[in-house]
Specification:
This protein has one domain: Vaccinia Virus protein VP39 (Rossmann fold), CATH 3.40.50. It starts with a helix and ends with a strand. The mean pLDDT is 96. The chain is 50% helix and 25% strand. Helix 5 (147-159) crosses helix 11. Helix 3 links the parallel strand 2 (59-66) and strand 3. It has eleven helices and seven strands.
Length: 268
């Protein structure tokens, strides 16, 4: 199995239920999606929620796009097994969608795992392909996410005598996520009306520091970015210090980290 395919399977088995399902539940509980028309799911991952939306529709079609061809292959296989015919999956880049203007009655976009500078461009593309009066739903993490980890990370860098060299980068990591009010304002500036948000704090528990740092959610999606501020030759040392500090912090209780899972929605 190729590394990319294995990563896609890990995404489906671990990241979808641990991470994506919380955002999708926010949609299911707070936003009534239409049962007719054309819907688009941007950064759909391995397609579980996309298929769920398609199964609830009476008439119409749901298209899911994701930049990873292996995740798309898994999504296509799921749709085939569940015999859902009104869903289509294809490769696509969120910041440069292939669709024409004004095509979809609803556009859902997952920006929870993409680089912060790409979120605004993703939102602009989502709005472009939505019909007039179409609904936009953007999934993202907002300010206050991973605070428990960054406290540990700061201490690990301090103990490694790297804090002075890495402080600017660490500060950027801590503050890169916008507040909910700033996210709403971004949506208004992009042209959406009737903007509102929904947010919930999601918690993740790890029995040991090693379990935390080796978990698919952390290792496959966040760790490389967090450690990018550390010289390559020192990253293993810093990782070991993070594990050690977590062990000292948790006192035999699980290590608890949390995020602020947020939906921002409005009409074009």
């Amino acid at each position: 199995m190729s590394a990319q395919k294995e990563r896609a399977y890990r995404y489906d088995l671990f990241i979808t239920p641990e991470w994506r399902d919380g955002f999708d539940l926010l949609i299911n509980e707070n936003i009534k999606l239409p049962v007719e028309g054309r819907l688009l799911d941007v950064n759909c991952g391995t397609g579980s929620h996309t298929i769920e939306i398609a199964e609830r529709m009476h008439q119409g079609k749901v298209t899911g796009v994701d930049p990873d061809p292996e995740r798309i292959a898994i999504a296509q296989a799921k749709a085939l097994v569940r015999k859902v015919k009104n869903v289509h999956f294809e490769e696509g880049i969120a910041t440069s969608l292939r669709f024409r203007d004004d095509e979809f009655i609803v556009v859902i976009g997952d920006a929870s795992l993409i680089a912060t500078p790409d979120i605004e461009r993703t939102l602009e593309e989502m709005i472009r392909v939505a019909q007039p009066d179409g609904r936009i739903i953007l999934k993202m993490t907002t300010h206050g996410s991973f605070d428990e980890f960054f406290s540990i990370y700061w201490e690990a860098l301090f103990q490694s005598e790297l804090i002075d060299k890495t402080w600017e980068g660490l500060e950027k990591l801590i503050n890169e996520r916008v507040t909910i009010s700033d996210a709403e304002e971004m949506a208004r500036q992009a042209g959406l009306v009737e903007v509102k948000s929904f947010s919930v704090r999601e918690e993740f528990l790890y029995e040991t520091g090693l379990e935390f740092i080796n978990s698919p959610l952390i290792m496959d999606t966040f760790l490389d970015g967090w450690l990018s501020i550390v010289p390559l030759s020192r990253r293993e040392e810093v990782s070991a210090r993070i594990v050690s500090l977590i062990e000292g912090e948790r006192h035999d209780a699980p290590f608890d980290i949390s995020i602020k899972a947020t939906l921002v929605t409005g009409l074009k």
